[in-house]
Amino acid sequence: MKNLLSILFLILTITLNSQSVMTRTIEVKDGQMDNFIKWGGKKTKMFNNEDGRSSFYTFNILTGPNAGKIWRAQVGDPASFDNDYQDELDYWAKNVSQYIENDQSSRTAMWNRVGWASWSPENPSNEDLLRRVIFYKVKEGKGQDFWRFRERQVMARNAMEIQMSRTTVLACSSGCDGNWVAVFFDHSGFEDQQSDYGEPLQALIEKYNEMFGPDSYDQDGSRVEAAVEERRIRHMRLIPELSSDN
Predict the structure, then answer these.
(1) Which one, out of 72, 142, 172, 224, has a CA that is 20 to 30 A from the CA of 97?
(2) Closest Cα partner for 96 from 49, 23, 24, 26?
(3) Helix axes 199-212, 216-227, angle to 10 degrees
(4) Which domains does the chain have, with CATH numbers?
(5) Using one digit for the tens of pLDDT, what is the confidence trace for 106-118?
């Protein structure tokens, strides 16, 4: 019963600290990517920088079986998802849909942003366009081990002096086959990503062990490995022209 109550508390905490995100994968017709970005970008800048409407952030998938396709994320509070703005829908249907080969509705998913498991430096860079994304499928009943490690990493990052990349954590709430969590790491490029594995990572491990006990970083990491059924790593690059400014 105690374990069940703890899991329910985690789910409630995620919900109360969340922002809604709906994602879908889009396959653009051969040779039409420039037109898709041009007209899709006009739609996004025209309609999706207004208060009360969802924001959109669009990525080019760089690795994995969907490399070359588009990953488009609609972000907002739950109320913004209740409104279908006809002007947006009409503009997309008239000016953008003709460049789409497959708008993969079967790949649509709903996520919640887990605020307490995400972390951002005081002055995040607007030039961080590369995303390294780790998708975790967490085993049933193993959520505590997984989320403990993520929460403690945020606490250690807040306590250390060396800065690291911004990390955003999303938990899938609908449309996923299992308990999937996506962890996004922001970088300016691949070289910047590699630099995070050097001194910043060592500083994080030292601070983590200082705060939670000797070897706790490795021990908690091992518990996460045991709690995860499947793990996928992907790289994506933000397309600013197709993304909201806010």
Answers:
(1) 172
(2) 26
(3) 100
(4) 2-242 (3.30.70.100)
(5) 678 999 999 999 9
